[in-house]
Amino acid sequence: MACIKLLDSWHLPSLQQNLMNPTNNQLPTTMSGVHLIGHGGLDQLVYRHDIPTPQPKDGEVLLKVLAAGVNNTDINTRIGWYSKQVTGDTNSGADQGYDELDATTATWSGSALQFPRIQGADVCGEVVSVGSGVNAERIGERVLVRTMQQDPQTKKRFDCVTFGSEYDGGFAQYTCALSDEAYAVNTPWSDVELASIPCAYSTAENMLHRASLKSGERVLITGASGGVGSAAVQLAKRRGAYVIAVAGVTKHDDVKALGADQLVPRGVDLVAAIGADEVDLVVDLVAGPDWPQLLDVLRRGGRYATSGAIAGPMVELDVRTLYLKDLTFFGCTFQDHIVFSNLVSYIEAEEIRPVVAQSYPLKQIHKAQTDFLNKGFTGKLVLIPES
Fold first, then answer.
1. Over the stretch 66-83, which tens digit does the pLDDT of each residue have?
2. S-S: 83 plus which of 22, 105, 204, 328, CB 3.0-4.6 Å?
3. 257, HSE (Cβ side, Cα atoms, 13 Å)
């Protein structure tokens, strides 16, 4: 009777899961990773070796992180740039962050971030354990985690959360993700190459998807040498568009190799370089003081899509330009599931290719983020946790 008593309703699920999940007993109890301990400078990123290894809950998978990309959103969240109190560009507070921020406004989601937080919006990982309700056959899969996820609480369209912001992400040896948000990928690409995809490419694909870019249209892409910009160049060419890319002159050859049809130096007069009313769609990641020119090059009935403002969020809009030219604006954060599903299919069909500028051990995250902010590269920077 004593043995039967052990198999009551409290113990049985745990026992069943261990039988399905033999890797549970082989995983370390602690792991190395990076804790964000508050908003501010690089000193708020603390590399540790004693972080408890997470355990997958119902519907979750535990991933061994194979590689994790560096993104603007990681830095923006660290320094508190999403706060409406901040009006400068993304580099202006990167060293020390911003003083006296209202914590509830210092993240993109509008609610205070919970510290310590493990950031890392980009994850390529291997499934090493599963929670209840998840098929144990998933163990061993190499997956990408969808960065921008629908809020599991409200499940409403446009309500979303970010992996590595509202939930712990990939800057550690292990991380948990909802099984439905971990997409198996069949490709010969390396882990580092795969880790360059989730955040940047889904952001770019989402803008093109929302703005319905069509074959033969002319699209202007700002910040075209960055992670999202270089992704947008490839994805726009995949759709058959004519791509006009704005980037620093030293990076023109790199961007041209991605498929750009026309290169425009950053900082020049766009109307003089391109012509007025010549563009069907603007994909903007920069904003800043030169923003009005983007509307000048749009044709009547043109579209503008944005998912970033690295040159500064405050712009001057002549509303007459908006309505007299019948322009349509798309602010792009929430992503329908089809956006990430499409990305996986593009990878498996070899229709896009990764652009990795450099990789670093995770413990060198300070250097990686410093290099990221210096913008002396084309494509993505990727971090690799200890094996």
1. 999 999 999 988 988 888
2. 105
3. 10
Beta bridge partners of 328: 303
Sheet of strand 218-221: strand arrangement: 262-265, 242-247, 218-221, 279-284, 298-306, 328-331
Q: Are β-strands 60-69 and 182-184 bridged in parallel, bridged antiparallel, or unpaired?
A: unpaired
| CA angle (63 as vertex; 59, 67 as ends), nearest 5 | 140
pLDDT tens figures, 211-249: 999 999 999 999 999 999 999 999 999 999 999 999 999
Assign 213 to helix, strand or coil. coil
For residue 244, the tally of other CB atoms under 10 A from its CB is: 25
What global pTM score does this model have? 0.89
Comparing C-alpha atoms, which of 193, 185, 162 is closest to residue 382? 193
Cα 251 to chain centroid distance, Å, stands at 22
CA 107: distance to chain centroid? Answer: 15
Q: In the numeric block, which tokens belong to residue 220?
A: 């202007």
* Ramachandran sector of residue 375 (left: φ over 0; alpha: ψ -120 to 50; beta: rest): left
Cα-to-chain-centroid distance, residue 64: 19
Inter-residue contact 126 to 66 (CB < 8 Å)? yes
State the pLDDT confidence band at 15, using cuts at 50, 70 and 90.
very low
From residue 212, alpha-carbon distances to 246, 305, 307, 336 in Å are 21, 10, 15, 14
